[in-house]
Amino acid sequence: MISCSSYPFLLADNSILKRVLNIPSLVECIYHCRDNVRCTSVTYFKNVCILNKVNIKDFQELAVSTAERPGVYSYAEKICLEAARECSDAWQIEKVLHKELIYTQGDFAQVPAETSMDCYRKCISNDLFKCRSAVWIEKTKSCTISVHNRATLNGNTVLTPNIDAQYMENSCFEETKRRCTFEPLMNRMVNYIDTTISEVKDHMDCRTYCLGANYPCRSYSYNPEKVSCYLSHHSSSTVSRRLAYKPAGINIQTFELVACYGLQLECLADRFVAEITTNRLFNGKVYIKNFEDDCVNDVNNSLAFRFEVKYEDEKCHARQLDKGFFLIDFVIQYFDNIVTFNDIWLSTTCQYDIRDQTLTIPDDLGVYDIKPTDYDDMLSQMPRIDLAVVYPNGSYIAETSNVGSLLILRFEPLEKTTFGFIVKRLVATDAKDNSTEVILLEDGCPVPPYLVSAPYLNASNVQVDFKAFKYTKSKFVRFMAVVGACDDDCNPIQCKLPDDEITNEETLTISQITDAEDDGYVDYDSDRIFEEKIVLSNPIELTDNEENDNDNGIIRKTRSIEDENNPESTALKKSRENEMKEMIYIGLGKMLALINRILDWFKSLFWKEEMELTLVGLQYSGKTTFVNVIASGQFSEDMIPTVGFNMRKVTKGNVTIKVWDIGGQPRFRSMWERYCRGVNAIVYMVDAADLEKMEASRNELHSLLDKPQLAGIPVLVLGNKRDLPGALDETGLIERMNLSSIQDREICCYSISCKEKDNIDITLQWLIAHSKSQSR
Questions:
Q1: Which positions bind Mg(2+) (predicted)?
Q2: 619 is in an annotated binding site
Q3: Sign of dihedral through CA atoms 469, 471, 472, 476?
Q4: Would you say residue 197 lies in a domain?
């Protein structure tokens, strides 16, 4: 295990094992020490990693004051903890020497301890409360453990100087990293940089890296000129102000972590309950949206609190959308009387039936006064789905449209998913008085008078055609749908409508099974739908306009030739106008369908092919380097390990390759199987020169391919670093990785060198051959 500290000393040159240059992160520097049995500590400074043979504590005579070598240094050393619980973070303890935190609130306890490590052990083994930090006083051999640390105490706590004290934070404390809020510090940057990431498109991507880091990332900075991201476990509250500086002439965007919120939602028989936890003392309130005085829970300096809404309590305004179907909008407001961007609005539904109980969260909440920070999801596997109203050509409509316009409700997954989804229920809502009209039933079929078509597939989207309509009392309409996700492919939903309601060419089946053929009725298998969620569209304004029907820019005008004073002529005129509109609508729909078919045909002839692959393997095997080489043709020594995952598109000839580069650290290997589902090929990277890790790499590969969801997907095994002495060739890789035992799929093996670019061309040829047009 590793302890990370801020020491005022460095080890002298004669204690250095070796220096490693161009190391972009403290984390990678620590990994170098972990892999070297002779290394006992590291010092990290400006991309230079110094491996030491000794540590400062045991060899203080070798220490050199940092005043003699000024700079911002990070120091970490190996430690040994008996019966320590598993922790995959880069370091386990963060120490601050000669400082203490005075605990005045919350759970804390004082216990005896002979050493600082003894004090830390009592912190992580405490059963009364979860311990975030400890202070050990050497002079009195006393130890204080607490549920708080610097961050939980509102981020403005200053450590008190004490020459005999050591302040220790438990970096392995499992804080939630969802629904996190950050605050900007304009043109400032913390000097302590733990990780540098290049080619980051914006600060939101940088935020994703920070939340996915395998250490407590408290701040990040983004340099738009260098498109670079800098992560740090420090913030302005953990370092002195002199270490936070404003670079001259450089536009640096710095953001500090404010708080993260964890939610456990529960639908009980007569109420909805939200159990809320946070990593910073909360001193605000939770209340029903728009009714902050009627149904509210005032919270005073707490890390855990709850919010209850009784369905029969009129003050709490729980809306019942249908029988057994309740909607609750509530706000987590950080300040008691002020609404800020960091506040969170969650819209939740509790749905009850005789089979099960589900809790779902909409993805698009249509927020107008405060922007939602995040959306909750009881099952993390289902992707976020956007519901939008578009024209038949795919373009978004403005907020206003005309009654009778031909429109499409488009359900679009916003992230990569290997699961199918179906639209089970669709409701139109009057945005003024919330009156509702069910237009798709639970089985996904339209309801008379058939205001919409049955759902159908269009690429990865699900679409529903309809002619714009509005309510008599309001011109604003919003759509709400129940979307169900399936663990694999959704069984087809088929609807049989009256012949006079549809044409033979209309699609009435939604199916994720492309080769399914069935002329009869096929009901969906409800047991395969593992999650349902509610999605909402933004409200659209519909206006009556008999003279103009502006449908994608098409303006039609009609003129009557009958006697306007004759009621029969007027009725006949209206009838003919309606018939003409219906004919134009049907003709327009058929014409658009024909155009789409022709475009698809031209795409197959001339447009670029696409493929999707997932790149996995142990850390430091060269996965990210490989992606960089095939994308830019350049090799760089400065590549850093992937934190979580990266996605990058690479175009070679007529093929666009979408590459999912998944982190190889142990904590990320559970993600491999999910991101390998449904891809054209799996690329498994092996460090051919690291024979000690060959067995672990083989076991991970075979464990991955044993997953039934990945059956039949081709695999390309690449043995990287063939330029190094002792690296295995193809024959050695096949034997050591036991590739000959894999008989259920196509498998290929190449020996490559990303540094020398050996066999990169033949690797690309194999990948291009497995593009979508040529793969299974």
A1: 624, 642
A2: yes
A3: negative
A4: yes
617 belongs to an annotated ligand binding site: yes
Which residue segment(s) compose the domain that 633 sits in? Answer: 609-771
Tens of pLDDT, residue by residue over 585-642, are 545 555 665 665 565 555 544 455 778 889 999 988 888 888 888 887 777 655 555 5
Asked if residue 85 belongs to a domain, the reply is no
Whole-model pTM: value is 0.47
Residue 620 marked as a ligand binder = yes
pLDDT tens readout for residues 23-48: 888 888 888 888 888 898 888 887 88
Mean pLDDT of the chain: 73
- Is there a single domain that holds both residue 634 and residue 735? yes
Query: 623 labelled as ligand-binding?
Result: yes
Task: Classify the C-alpha dihedral 408-414-415-419 as positive or negative.
Answer: negative
DSSP label of 90? S
Write the DSSP assignment of 139-166 as a string of letters.
Answer: TTTEEEEES--TTTTTT---PEEEEEEE
Q: Which of 351, 374, 398 finishes a domain?
A: 351
Q: Are residues 2 and 54 in the same domain?
A: yes
Q: How far apart are CA 595 and CA 302, in angstroms?
A: 60
pLDDT at res. 358: 39
Q: Is position 723 annotated in a ligand binding site? A: yes
Q: How many residues does the chain have?
A: 776
**How large a percentage of the chain has pLDDT more than 90?**
10
Which range has the worst mean pLDDT, 151-160, 190-199, 647-656? 151-160
Continuous segment of H or E residues that includes residue 586: helix 567-606
**pLDDT tens sequence across 72-119:** 678 888 887 765 566 777 888 888 888 888 877 778 888 889 988 899
Tokens of 637: 């020594």
668 occurs within a structural domain: yes
| 258: nearest Cα among 275, 241, 290, 283 | 283
Last residue of a domain, one of 33, 52, 80: 80
CA-based nearest residue to 469, from 412, 425, 429, 410 = 429
Pair 8, 44 in one domain: yes
Task: Identify the CA nearest to 233 among candidates 277, 282, 169.
Answer: 169
622 is in an annotated binding site: yes
Whether residue 277 sits in one domain with residue 214 = no
| 116 or 380, greater pLDDT | 116
SS3 track for 615-661: EEECCCCCHHHHHHHHHHCCCCCCCCCCCCEEEEEEEECCEEEEEEE
Pairing of strands 244-245, 189-190: antiparallel
CATH number, domain with residue 5: 3.50.4
Q: Establish whether 624 is an annotated binding residue.
A: yes
For residues 683 and 731, state if they share a domain. yes
Q: Is 621 annotated as a binding residue?
A: yes
- Provide the CA 759 distance to its chain's centre, in angstroms: 34
In-domain check, residue 570: no
| Same-domain check for residues 396 and 440 | yes
